[in-house]
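Q: Two folds, back to back.
A: First:
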Amino acid sequence: MAETEGKKLRVLFLCTGNSARSQMAEGLLRELSGGKVEAFSAGTEPAAEVQPKAVAAMAEIGIDISAQKPKNVATLEDADFDWVITVCDHARQTCPVWPGRTHHVYWPIADPVSQEGDDEIKMTAFRETRDDLKDHIAMWLSGQGIEGGGTSGG
């Protein structure tokens, strides 16, 4: 269900740098759930800023993540999350443990930051990652019985 004991589900997306995949996932979940889920993201070794191509790829589908900032997962260790979804193998291996009822899931999502080539090839990688995340999140929401808002692009 979308709510547990009268409160929204809280989901943390975790990756190493918190500069692309987890940031895009946070924005996508917020949008696709229609605000019915509280979305967060963090990294085990956060970067200095969100990747500009991640911001651009999200803007293409009408989601603004330009104000989001990378955060260290250590700053959230005392927070309660219903779900912790890791989107990279390194973060999965180094993820802190949330005791209690937290569900842990691993989604092996390609890292667009590591894509080599010219700007268009790199931008294509960010779009593919965005779309992969969007598909994963839509399926996850469906499994939770949550109907959301959706995005106009895709």
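A: Second:
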Amino acid sequence: MISLTLPDIKDFTSHLLLKDSFDSFCFIEGEIVTFNTFRIDGFIQKDFFDTDTELPEYSYWKNVRDYCFQIIRGKRTPLSFRFVFSLSPKNIGRLIRQNVPSIRPDDVQGLYLNLHFDGTHLTCVTGTSFKTFILDKSLEHIWDEMVKKFFHQKGIIFEQM
């Protein structure tokens, strides 16, 4: 787990809300505080759909990004927001196969990005969650490095705390 400060709030929120930078991440949950508090659960309600197609457990950010943008946009900065993203199950499997083949992808609950804006500061905290107890911390370290590499590739400025 690492904590990153994102000093260029305007640029980061552009990546978050206007660009496709985070679209392939699963959206776990979010909260936006403007004139009201808006809470969004990313868990897909499968009974809503008339399909036999296998649906993911969580929405992808690309499917809820515009809704969140509609809540945030305007002349006034939100009082706060927080979003929790996870690397998609497919990408978790790929990351494990390439780096830590001793860990089974089914044992990983999620590799998370926890984004929090408190009105003045924006931070990102990484997280790793397993379904079972695992002593091996190599996946956690690989995920932390991958997040920093991802931000660097996207041109997102960050400072490690």
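Q: And?
A: The chain has one domain: 3-160.
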